[in-house]
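Quick one, tokens below. Sequence please?
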């Protein structure tokens, strides 16, 4: 039983490194999903981290629904797990979270960074799927950057975009003059 947050990080790191060698990753994820129901909020955070190692449709659904939890600890842990998701399947949920008007500015920026990372790094996903999501992320980023308490007032729109993701603007349209 961990006695400090450092102990917990060590345990999660050990599980993460052994998970690479697990042959039945779906079975492992299924056992984690069964533990979510009775788990306390702090335990759910660890389970979300472990689910984000393998990904998977069921795990994504569980973590995505936990983002809407009224418990702030569960909400924050689930959002962090989504931003660490290993494949493109979490990009759309992240952009949708960022686009909701009820999403806080901090959560919008986290979701946009996670979504942008997945869009940028998912080379096996066709561009026909990645580009529309990238444009949706860009539109949301423009709204965040012009928010009165957001990134606006701290430089140009180009600087605001680059502050969130240094390479995002260049890849999605700096050459086309999309930034002012």
């Amino acid at each position: 039983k961990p006695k400090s947050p450092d102990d917990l990080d060590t345990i999660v790191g050990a599980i993460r490194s052994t998970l690479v060698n697990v042959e039945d990753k779906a079975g492992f994820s299924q056992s984690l999903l069964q533990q979510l129901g009775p788990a306390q909020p702090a335990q759910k955070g660890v389970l979300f981290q472990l689910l984000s190692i393998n990904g998977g449709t069921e795990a994504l659904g569980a973590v995505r629904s936990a983002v809407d939890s009224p418990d702030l600890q569960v909400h924050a842990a689930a959002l962090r797990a989504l931003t660490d998701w290993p494949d493109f399947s979490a990009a759309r949920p992240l952009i949708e979270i960022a686009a909701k008007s009820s999403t806080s500015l901090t959560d919008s920026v986290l979701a946009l960074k996670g979504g942008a990372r997945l869009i940028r790094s998912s080379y096996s996903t066709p561009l026909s799927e990645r580009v529309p999501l990238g444009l949706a992320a860009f539109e949301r980023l423009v709204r965040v950057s012009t928010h009165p308490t957001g990134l606006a007032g701290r430089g140009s729109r180009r600087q605001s975009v680059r502050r969130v993701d240094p390479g995002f603007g260049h890849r999605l349209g700096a050459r086309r003059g999309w930034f002012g």
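The CA atoms of residues 94 and 122 lie 14 Å apart. DSSP finds ten helices and no strands in the chain.
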